[in-house]
Amino acid sequence: MIAQRINGVLRPVPTGFVYAAGLVPLALLVWQAATGGLGVDPVKAIEHRLGELALQFLVGVLAISPLRWWTGVNLIRFRRAIGLLSFFYVCLHLSVWLALDLQFRWAEIGADIAKRPYITLGMLAFVAMIPLAVTSTNGAIRRMGASAWTRLHRLTYLVAVLGALHFLLLVKAWPPEPIIYLGCVLFLLGLRAFRALRRGG
């Protein structure tokens, strides 16, 4: 009953509202940067916040199907928007790292990608997200066929693990926050595996 009421409330909500709401954290970040509220190293603060937002939206994508399976709350029609917002924030995160942090020093960038595992994992996650973003249209589903499109978009699982590991290795000291993100990703993937095994049995 509660799920039906929630679904009824969400039914008239346009997808554009999700995009608009997803840009609110960016607006707040810009405001903090403009008012000097990001501390002594604003570039690092911006870079890390954008990466964290990307991971948060990615966890949101993973949560949509289990939420529908186990509670009946259906957010499937918002999944594409949430996934594209994740990719948008990943692009911003990468752009800040390239342009503001390393200032397009390509030799240093290449060395960091090769030598620093957390950067290597982050770049792999970004590359894996590109085909997901490119094929996030109804036209792509029609051209590829639903089965092939579904198989491709299972890359989301890999991206989520890589993104969570990127965050965990970045902070080095292992504070609770990145561990919680990784735990959420593994838990949500575990729910998928459990359901697949139960249905297969």
Automatic annotation (TrEMBL):
Gene: msrQ
A GO molecular-function annotation: heme binding
Protein name (Swiss-Prot/TrEMBL): Protein-methionine-sulfoxide reductase heme-binding subunit MsrQ
Required cofactor names: FMN; heme b
GO cellular component, one term: plasma membrane
Species this protein is from: Cereibacter azotoformans
Transmembrane region(s): 12-33, 53-70, 82-100, 116-134, 155-173, 179-197
Subcellular location: Cell membrane; Membrane
Family from the record: Belongs to the MsrQ family.
Known function: Part of the MsrPQ system that repairs oxidized periplasmic proteins containing methionine sulfoxide residues (Met-O), using respiratory chain electrons. Thus protects these proteins from oxidative-stress damage caused by reactive species of oxygen and chlorine generated by the host defense mechanisms. MsrPQ is essential for the maintenance of envelope integrity under bleach stress, rescuing a wide series of structurally unrelated periplasmic proteins from methionine oxidation.
